[in-house]
């Protein structure tokens, strides 16, 4: 297992990297512009209000968790501009060697294939570099865009968890999807999921 932080992953114009201090203005504008778009899918704490953590606190928490190897929080950027986030966590080692993947993207870039590519990059890194065995994604049944993402990535459906996660002010059902390392043929470059995705959906092909 090799855990590296800070971490940068790239595929063409797509770059995944840590949140930087100088990202604050752009990040806050992006979250505000997408507030209504993300509200139905954002996890919430039933004992606290739904306000987003202040940028400084969010970045500090991200850095602390990432340094210890407990989370892998990365921004999604295209041509140097912020477009969303993707996170793996909590990362469990030992006998489990698993994690849960979460993501969001700017509504203006939805359908462009950024999230499947970003997720493929992260999954390949988790399998090939960090030695994880299982990646899980949970999706609200109503979230058709995210269901399309797990379909493109060939994650297996594993059923429905009732009232699994507190989202948008209430306990919501979530569908569970998973992928294990044995289900991926990884090349010498460390890419397996991304290579398969690019074969089935070449980068210039619309992925909506």
Automatic annotation (TrEMBL):
Alphabetic keyword roster: Acyltransferase, Transferase
Domain N-acetyltransferase: 14-182
Ranges annotated as spanning the membrane: none
Top-level enzyme category: transferase
Annotated InterPro entries: Acyl_CoA_acyltransferase (IPR016181), GNAT_dom (IPR000182), N-acetyltransferase (IPR051531)
Cited Gene3D superfamilies: 3.40.630.30
SUPFAM superfamilies (alphabetical): Acyl-CoA N-acyltransferases (Nat)
EC assignment: 2.3.1.267
Gene Ontology MF annotations: protein-N-terminal-alanine acetyltransferase activity
Family listed: Belongs to the acetyltransferase family. RimJ subfamily.
Protein name per the record: Ribosomal-protein-alanine N-acetyltransferase
